[in-house]
Amino acid sequence: MQAFREHTGVVVPLDRVNVDTDQIIPKQFLKRIERTGFGEFLFYDWRFSGDGSKIADFVLDQSRYQGATILIAGKNFGCGSSREHAVWALADFGFRVVIASSFADIFANNSLKNGLLTVRLAEEQVTEIMRRAKERENYRLTIDLQKLRVDDGQGFSAAFAMDEFSRHCLLNGLDDIGLTLQHEAAITAYEAQHPVRPTMKNILAG
Questions:
Q1: Which fold has domain 6-194?
Q2: DSSP per-residue string spanning 37-56
Q3: Between the CA atoms of 78, 79, 82 and 88, what dihedral angle is there, to the nearest 10 degrees?
Q4: What are the domain boundaries of the chain?
Q5: Are the C-beta atoms of residues 101 and 121 closer than 8 Å to each other?
Q6: For 101-124, what is each residue's pLDDT tens digit?
Q7: Residue 7 backbone dihedrals phi, psi, to 5 degrees
Q8: In whole angstroms, how large is the CA radius of gyration of the chain?
Q9: What are phi and psi of 180, to 5 degrees?
């Protein structure tokens, strides 16, 4: 997993609440077994009309927000089903950070395990960032995970909280596999002391 320490990027405002995972990545695109390739279908039903043509005024496709890596949205982001594909789609599109006043628990947990930082701020702070992102061209934020701070260098600054274990994992790029491999020597030693017992299947196969 890619480590996260500090990131500066263009902010795109998705001024909607209760954005659920089926809106983030609709169910018809869940057929892939890889984690990549989902970005082109992100928010598909909002970005494309029934004939497959782009809806020109959808915020993600406006020229001023091209290349945005920070998404700010309304409360309860990521609600609905537990599909991890929603996180994969956001990351594959290029997002490193999602900011909202609240997130669905499963979505937030999936995000942290995939290196996508979810930042919870107070509603009035989210409203202010949303306003600035709409009004200012090329509006950027810096998110510093080491200092737990969001700053735009233009008068807005806010602290955010995160549990220390999740923060440690993101700072060091450790997903569940990475955490396990930190104990590889101990695992190898244990396996050496506890050889696999023969089974009837192994005996017949040998």
A1: Aconitase; domain 4 (3.20.19)
A2: S-GGGTTHHHHB-TTS-B-T
A3: -10
A4: 6-194
A5: yes
A6: 999 999 999 999 999 999 999 999
A7: -140, 135
A8: 21
A9: -65, -40
